[in-house]
């Protein structure tokens, strides 16, 4: 058969049928070397099949054989790889499902929430405005309470006189009291529950004491002691307790049959004042108790209390707040027992240890005013016995 590589075939003869057939025969033919190699491969494969597999080879073959024959094991849906995450997803899924099934209900809840937030914001704004309006009206009431009396010139410093000119002027003290009292009560009526209303009740109680209305004053001060402001502010609570004590003292003077009972009630209030945790209230409460004990006729016990107060407030200390209280305590001591203290002139000169001379500036206008008041009382009454106004020290 002609070979297409045979030189006897030219390039033009390669596409002749004889040349193509020769190439096909050559592709399918097997040489001797190839045949021998093929026979050896068959013999090697036969020996491998006949040899018995042992050890790791057998195990590996078995595993390879079983691949794909069994069903694939997948993680069970009941096993939670991360319980917290699955619970969260489950709840989210349930919530989403519930929202889809109750769209109208969910929309209503959202609307209620938005409305509630709007109402809360509106209430805060309204409350702020209410407090501001109450403060304005309270300031007007205080201005009336501190107002001027026509034709009466107060012995005050230039600064105090300039301030007083800013206050309204009234024909009489009674007219001033009525004007202030009306505004205080208006604050209480229109703005009940506010801090301004509580302070208005304090002002009302003071004015009622001035007018001699002990029962009215007791009611006003009693309302203050139970207020939220009094629970939060020790000064407000102290002033209210002091006012209740003064009101009971006033009732003891105006209602003779109940004198002892009213004085005992005053002692209770002043003991509560002593327990107020604020600077100066302990000594102030003790001093008021001594006054009441003296009025009840127990001068020995009153003297003992006054001596304890005097020892507390006369201790050498810089800037203690008891200067005015020290002055009246010493005066009350001398009234009960003239020998309890050295003469005042001696104390002022500091010849008997630390006394008023070391703690009180006698040129202070307030001290001078106290001295003038006590001198007027001594001229008209012989001894101080009237009930003081709240916040004052008789």
Topology:
Blueprint: H1 17-28, H2 32-50, H3 55-66, H4 83-101, H5 103-145, E1 148-149, H6 158-164, E2 169-170, H7 173-190, H8 195-210, H9 214-225, H10 228-232, H11 234-254, H12 259-274, H13 281-295, H14 299-313, H15 323-336, H16 344-348, H17 356-359, H18 365-380
Parallel strand pairs: 1-2
Helix pairs in contact: 5-7, 5-8, 7-8, 8-9, 8-11, 9-11, 11-12, 11-13, 12-13, 13-14, 13-15, 14-15
Overview of this protein structure:
This protein is mostly helical and 394 residues long. Among the domains are: 1-32, no CATH class; 279-394, no CATH class. The protein has 18 helices and two strands. The protein has helices at 17-28, 32-50, 55-66, 83-101, 103-145, 158-164, 173-190, 195-210, 214-225, 228-232, 234-254, 259-274, 281-295, 299-313, 323-336, 344-348, 356-359, 365-380, and strands at 148-149, 169-170. The protein has a two-stranded parallel sheet with strand order 1-2. Strand 1 (148-149), helix 6 (158-164) and strand 2 form a beta-alpha-beta unit.
Helix run count = 18
Which runs of at least 5 residues are low in confidence (pLDDT < 50)?
Answer: 348-360, 377-391
How would you sum up the global shape?
A: elongated
Helix/strand class? mainly alpha
**Mean pLDDT score:** 75
Largest beta sheet, briefly? Answer: 2 strands, parallel
The Rg value, from CA coordinates, equals 54 Å
In spatial order, strands of the major sheet run 1-2
Estimate the helix proportion, in percent.
Answer: 55-70%
SSE succession: HHHHHEHEHHHHHHHHHHHH
Report, as a whole number of angstroms, the end-to-end distance.
Answer: 153 Å
């Amino acid at each position: 058969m002609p070979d297409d590589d045979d030189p006897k075939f030219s390039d033009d003869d390669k596409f002749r049928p004889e040349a193509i057939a020769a190439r096909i025969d050559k592709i399918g033919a097997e040489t001797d070397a190839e045949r021998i190699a093929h026979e050896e491969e068959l013999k090697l494969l036969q020996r491998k099949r006949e040899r018995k597999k042992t050890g790791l080879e057998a195990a590996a073959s078995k595993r390879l054989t079983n691949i794909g024959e069994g069903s694939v094991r997948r993680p069970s849906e009941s096993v939670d790889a991360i319980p917290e995450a699955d619970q969260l997803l489950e709840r989210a899924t349930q919530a989403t499902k519930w929202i889809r099934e109750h769209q109208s209900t969910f929309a209503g809840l959202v609307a209620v929430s938005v409305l509630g937030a709007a109402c809360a914001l509106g209430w805060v704004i309204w409350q702020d405005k209410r407090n501001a309006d109450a403060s304005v009206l309270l300031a007007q009431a205080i201005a009336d309470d501190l107002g001027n009396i026509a034709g009466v010139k107060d012995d005050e410093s230039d600064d105090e006189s300039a301030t007083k000119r800013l206050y309204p002027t009234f024909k009489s003290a009674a007219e001033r009291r009525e004007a202030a009292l009306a505004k205080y009560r208006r604050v209480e009526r229109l703005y009940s529950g506010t801090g301004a209303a509580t302070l208005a009740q304090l002002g009302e109680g003071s004015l009622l004491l001035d007018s001699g209305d002990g029962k009215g004053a007791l009611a006003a001060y009693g309302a203050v002691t139970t207020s939220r402001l009094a629970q939060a502010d020790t000064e407000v609570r102290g002033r209210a307790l002091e006012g209740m004590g003064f009101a009971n003292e006033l009732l003891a003077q105006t209602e003779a049959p109940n004198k002892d009972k009213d004085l005992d009630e005053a002692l209770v209030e002043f003991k509560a004042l002593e327990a107020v945790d604020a600077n100066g209230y302990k000594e102030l409460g003790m001093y008021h108790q001594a006054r009441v004990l003296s009025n009840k006729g127990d001068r020995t016990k009153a003297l003992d209390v006054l001596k304890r107060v005097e020892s507390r407030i006369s201790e050498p200390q810089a800037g203690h707040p008891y200067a005015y209280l020290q002055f009246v305590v010493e005066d009350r001591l001398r009234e009960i027992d003239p020998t309890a203290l050295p003469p005042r002139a001696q104390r002022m000169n500091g010849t008997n240890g630390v006394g008023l001379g070391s703690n009180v500036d006698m040129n202070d206008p307030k001290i001078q005013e106290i001295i003038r008041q006590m001198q007027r009382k001594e001229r008209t009454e012989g001894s101080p016995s009237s009930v003081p106004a709240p916040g004052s020290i008789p």
